[in-house]
Amino acid sequence: MKLNLKLKEYWHKLGSPRWFYQITTSWVTFFGICALLLLATGLVWALAFAPADYQQGNSFRIMYVHVPAAMVAQSLYIGMGVAGFVGLVWRMKLTDVAIGACLPLGMVLTALALFTGGVWGKPTWGSWWEWDGRTVSTLVLLFLYIGIYALREAIPDRDLRARASALVSLVGTVNIPIIKYSVEWWNTLHQSASFSLTEKPAMPAEMWLPLLVMVLGFYCFAGHQVLSRMRLEVLSREATSRWVLQLLQDKSAEAGLGQSSLIDHGRD
Amino acid sequence: MYFDSFDAFLRMGEHGLYVWMAYGATLLVLLSAFFITRSMSRSVEENIRWTILSRQSEQAAGTAQTQRQGNES
């Protein structure tokens, strides 16, 4: 009886991370396969089959990597803001894991959006960098990512780190609408949105279809990355719990590594 | 295929340098993200395995005994 109660308590405590780990096992594979197919198709389509722009020539092909990188970078930040809010209000453990998982990919994708923007700007605007509303607010996004990353590295206490990064993530989301509307508020160099959910794109289908494929591919890639990172963090945080033991045992048995006796009890 | 020849594909009009730089950076980012995450998950699993194994070898004798008693009852 006593053991039973103890077990129940254990289950309850570990329920959430374990549940997360189990349901995401197939999602990771799904996102990974979708990302591979979409990105492979999209890259070939964008580079070799889409027609060149009548004004910008072939440099416009940079759009096919620039736009998805920027979109996913902002979405990941929104994800961090939402996770931060949920974490601050309900004190869920998984939200901090989510912030930590979105952070590195969001950071490199923001840097990639800025880099590809510069590389596109050189032949189009005549300069690698312009102090345009969109570029500056995206630079602010990069600094926010770097700031939260540094914050997380600097605070050793897990609870304090979780609360601090949740708060900064949440506050930093004010920058997202600024990025979005920057092209309308400061109508300088950056062209306005090439893609939106509500309107029909101004481009012909042979130009925006590959963009759609690339955007979906980037989102699937982000899904795959964020889930994988969350899973490995959950695993290392729960390293001493029984389900992790069982999981690793099953895994090595499946792989036929001959390590099937990681735990030699509990499976009777 | 939009281009007439492979050479034209590489040159991208006058914009080959810019286009290939952007796509090269993108591939670099995506591939390194993928491989870094994969090696991280593997090392986390390895670490846990190693910890379990070393803990078990310490407790091996005791566990075996309780296990036998548990099966009999």
What's the layout of helices and strands?
The complex is a heterodimer of chains A (268) and B (73).
Chain A: H1 2-49, H2 63-90, H3 93-125, H4 133-154, H5 158-172, H6 175-185, H7 205-237, H8 242-255
Chain B: H1 6-11, H2 16-72
Structure notes:
The complex is a heterodimer of chains A (268) and B (73). Chain A has helices spanning 2-49, 63-90, 93-125, 133-154, 158-172, 175-185, 205-237, 242-255. Chain A has 268 residues and is mostly helical. In chain A, helix 3 packs antiparallel against helix 4 (133-154). Chain B has one domain (6-72). The mean pLDDT of chain B is 84. Chain B is an all-alpha fold. The longest helix of chain B has 57 residues, at 16-72. Chain B contains 2 helices and no strands. The chains are: A mainly alpha (268), B mainly alpha (73). Chains A and B meet through helix 1, helix 2, helix 3, helix 7 and helix 8 of A and helix 2 of B.
Brief characterization of the structure:
Chain A has 268 residues and is an all-alpha fold. Chain A has helices at 2-49, 63-90, 93-125, 133-154, 158-172, 175-185, 205-237, 242-255.
Evaluate the radius of gyration of chain B.
Answer: 28 Å
The low-pLDDT segments of chain B are none
Please compute the radius of gyration of chain A using only Cα atoms.
22 Å
> Main beta sheet of chain A, described?
none
Count of DSSP strands of chain A: 0
List its salient traits:
heterodimer; A: 268 residues; mainly alpha; Four Helix Bundle (Hemerythrin (Met), subunit A); 8 helices; globular; B: 73 residues; 2 helices; rod-shaped
